[in-house]
Amino acid sequence: MDRERSSTPHARVRRIAVAILATLGTVAAVLQVLACGRPRQPAAAEQVLRFRLREDPPTLDPALANDQISEAVVLNVFRGLVEMDPGTLEVRPAVAAFWTIAEDRRTYTFRLRDDALFHNGRRVTARDVEYSFRRTLSKETNSPRRFILEPIEGAREFAEGKSAAIAGLTIPDEQTIVLRLSRPFAPFLSQLTMVNAALVPREIYDDPARAYLRAPVGCGPFRFSRWEQSNFIELLAFDGYYGGRPALDRIQVRIIENRESALQEYLAGGLDSLDEVPNHDDALMARLGSEVHEYPFIGTQYIGFNHMLPPFKGNTALRKAFNYAVDKEYIWKALGGYPPANGIIPPGIPGHDPDLPGYPYDPAKARRLLAEAGYPDGKGLPPIAFWFNTSEGIRRLAQKIQADLKAIGADVTLREVDWAAYLAAVEGTPEQPGQAQMFRFGWYLDYPDADAILRPLLHSSNWGPAGNYFRYRNPRLDALLDEALSLPDPGARAARYREAERIAVMEDAAWLFLSYYQSQTLFKPYVKGIVHSPLGEFRIPLERLRVEKGAA
Amino acid sequence: MTPDTSRPAVSPFRSRSWFSLSLGIIIVAVFVLCAALAPALSRWVGYGPFDQVTPRSVIPPTPPDRDHPLGTDSLGRDLLVRLAHGARISLAVGVLAEIMALLIGVGVGALAGYAGGRADALLMRLTDLVFAFPAPLLALAVLAAVPDPESAAILKHLPQPSVGVVFLVLGCIGWAGIARLVRAEFLKIRELEFAQAARAIGARGARVVARHLLPNTLGPLVVAATLGVGGNILVEAWLSFLGVGARPPLPSWGTMVTEGQAYFLARPWVCVAPGLAIFAVVLGFNLLGDGVGALLDPRRRSAPA
Fold this sequence. Notes:
heterodimer, A: alpha+beta, Dipeptide-binding Protein, domain 3, six-stranded mixed β-sheet, 17 helices, 18 strands, 19% strand, B: mainly alpha, MetI-like fold, 11 helices, 0% strand
């Protein structure tokens, strides 16, 4: 999943529409203020948190949620069997009070709590788990994250319509559910924490009119209240939440597309939290001081090389030369980028290796390697196109990289295109590599496990459009990743991942390693109980937040 | 004392038109000079429009100083050098698109105006069709449909496909006004004595058009073309501002405004400089066009105060 893609709308058409409608929008905004459709103003004693999303969530259906914006809302309304502690990233009980894993490492038995209620007041049972899992897996739902349940035996057959039931799912009694996997799969519990495995009540979600899309019902800490398109979404504390009623009475998710407007709204006190910081304005940043929260985010940004096309094909020295040529430190400090990456596995994920040397900025070494690669001072280097998708930040980054490469003698041309054209050029087809020789990409981990970045991007089983767009293949890396999946001991797994990373980074220079993502968020000082989650700014558990505006 | 009514009636309009004409000429001359001298400027200062000139330890954009009179942009590139090179893009797109519009517009207008009848009706409906769309929005729509000009078969051989496509689109849209103008002039002139006389001595259509009608529309055409260049420059900047025109790292003025936008409050010079440049040049072409129009138009020239 690409962070830039899911976090900024940059389809060109969209931007154009925005530009044309800007005037209309202003008028509409004025009318909105005058009209009654205004979010309710907080009553004195009510605890309200107002945060901003840059667009309407693409969906509020947990089975379909596949982006940060949707998750920002859905995560607060729904819960699954297990959840991930947003701070420590440990899997912990949610609707399941506890679970056991059998000796064979394939059979998971979950015991449900007896006090978990859906927002319509009905108790959650094992039947709901079965219904929800079937729903996420089924062809009709067409969930983009069906794969998280596919380790269950028979899940794939069920999804393909070859079987009417999920063979590996059994319900001994109303409070117990047993899942049997086709083979031991260590990250399974991590995957179950994803919102797509959340529990939904059948009586609401069997609706052919699909009213649940506009009025979701789950068993999470907040219940859905209303959604005014392009204006706001309102959630209310759920009194019957099994974890205890949250301190916040109400959450107002305000949809403000323009970043400058959102910032002004935050400064004016109309928002308590903002998912962007004005890091281009030093004076303002200084004034905001401790309201600025910066913390690691489990994602990596890099430039992919196409290992099937010249000149990167089979030329490790050239790939290393490019790595040394780019000033990642400067990109971070001066261009509002992210901290430099020494490798692939981001900090906070087991397997991250702080001692990996990586490729610090060294233009002299880059020039030597370029000559070693057969292109002294860039002579003889074939035309190289560097592709990226339209976005203000990426455009700046790309121009800096172009300039840095030019400084060692390597000429690349920039190809800025919209997301669809970009993806077509990068992915190619299963048979044919894409035409992009070099492309900027970002990946954030679907769950905090090194496998969630190394396998989809670098394992040869995902060769081609499945995720390994680079067409990188190293049998030693494949073997290490496969071995790690079956190891029960987390320490031993992490060691395999460190070794795999060392191969891809130091030996093969598979990509140009740029940066580890960071979350940057503003919070008003009166918001208390903030947990910095490496899973992203929208994963801060809102049920733990309090608003303490001075008693005066 | 009685008011002096004998003072000669000097047309204030006339003097104002002279003023605007000279101002227009000065601005356009400076602009063309900038475009022409940009490579020389780069050689002289020792860096081009893509080179980072700020040291690694400094966070750009830096404010104007002695070495960089307009300051630097967010990537530490000299804004003055970029502006000068950007003038080349603006000038090329503005003029080339206008030439293309003239070629199409004069052809269509002359044919319609001279032939009349069905051909006239057909061509003018076509012109109405193009005219009915607001030109910049039409250009925007067409450009949005070509997300990757560098890969498009007909464009990829142009030296700068992302700029080339803008000039093609503007040229293909801008002709409608010219066509109407030429047709209207033709309808007027065609029935005048000299045109009738030409026909009477047996001159053929093409000859009448080329020798007798076209030369008499030159005045309004020059005015329209001058205004058109200014318009094209503005639309090119606007399209690049929206990200569908010239692609980075090309220093199109519109792109430069976009790049400076994020810094508008903290470091305003980054987008104010290219913004002012667009403003001045478009103003220059408009003044020039108006001035030339006032000079060439006998009715306006003799207009009383």
